[in-house]
Design a protein that fits this description.
By secondary structure, the chain is mainly alpha-helical. 62% of the residues lie in helices and 5% in strands. It is built from 14 helices and 5 strands. The strands form 2 sheets. It has a 3-stranded antiparallel β-sheet with strand order 2-1-3. A hairpin with a 2-residue loop joins strand 1 and strand 2.
Length: 398
Amino acid sequence: MRKALVRVVVLVALAAVVVGGVWAWTRRPWRVAAAVNGVALTARELDLRAEALGGDRRETVRTWIAKQVLLDEAVQRNVSVAEADEREAKSILTAWLASRGVTPEQFFTEGPLPEEARRRDLQEGLLIHTFVKDGLLTKTFPEFYRPLRERAEVRCPEFPELEGLDTGTALYAWLWGWRPARVSVAAAGQVVTSAELDLRVLNTLDDLRRRGLAPPKEREASILPALRRHEAQTWIVKAVMRAEAARRGFLVTSDDEKEQMERKARALKPHRLTVGQFFKEGVLPEALKWDDFRSEIRVGKFTAREVREKISVTTQEIEARMAELRKRAAEEAARGAKPTVRSDRKTAIDQLHNERYVKGFRDLFRSLFDSARVWSPEFPEMERVDGVSLPIFKERSR
């Protein structure tokens, strides 16, 4: 009986070894899942990356291939990351993590990926980001990526279909496969990532709360998609107009900043903020706020020359508008409503001027849109000028 029991145990153990061996062989964590120009991604690393970055295996492989293609080219071209660009990228990453209650140290040290791999990913991502931003000055990302992908030697035993060309591969700016680091919109060589867009939405929501205009807490989630679209469109307008202003040589001087600071102080009063609080507080990094501030100045100077200074209204148009305003005021009075319409000459001139400024701004933006090569994996309809519902930058004082 004892011998029979021993034989059974031995047979079970042998079966377990065989089954385990077969399982290990079929899984083979050391096997190559994909390779680009001789650099391999093993099945084990693929598993870790898919788990750490919250994506499926196929998507993780797809983005790794794009990463390696771009990284190889960036290294060959001796691309280097400017200190200011690295600071900006890291400040956005830190701010986004803070908005989720996570420190950078936790991000790099916690999770399945080793800390060294995460930090290396960040540095490689910044290098690729610099390389791609330069390319986006003259091409959309698919146009830029395709010839590089064609030249690369790609093998993918795990997903053979990924060996074919894929110009639709999403671009990730910092950490490959991680949603916050994905590019939401690119225009005129500038990029806004999903993380930055998240922060801009949170900033707008905070401002609505400060002004008493935010919806109840339970309804906030319902307005987030609309806020996100609005922030993306606002960013596109800023990027397109700023790039052209810079191309035409418009500069931001210290006097410009002083003048704009005075305007900003007045504009912030309804928001219950001082200028100091505006730059120091909130979810947006201070450097990003200063960049927005200077962009507003540059775009304002550009549109002042190209739009405002070219506006003219005739006496006949002013008198016709005054007559129209008087008619509307009389209709209000007849209804017994509280007067809201003024019909004086200044009001008529201001209305005509503002209407033409808005039209001129729109026409100018539309004329520049194609040259900015807008590319948006998140909002593909915004790659067409008709897909951008245009928020207007405030006109500089006359």
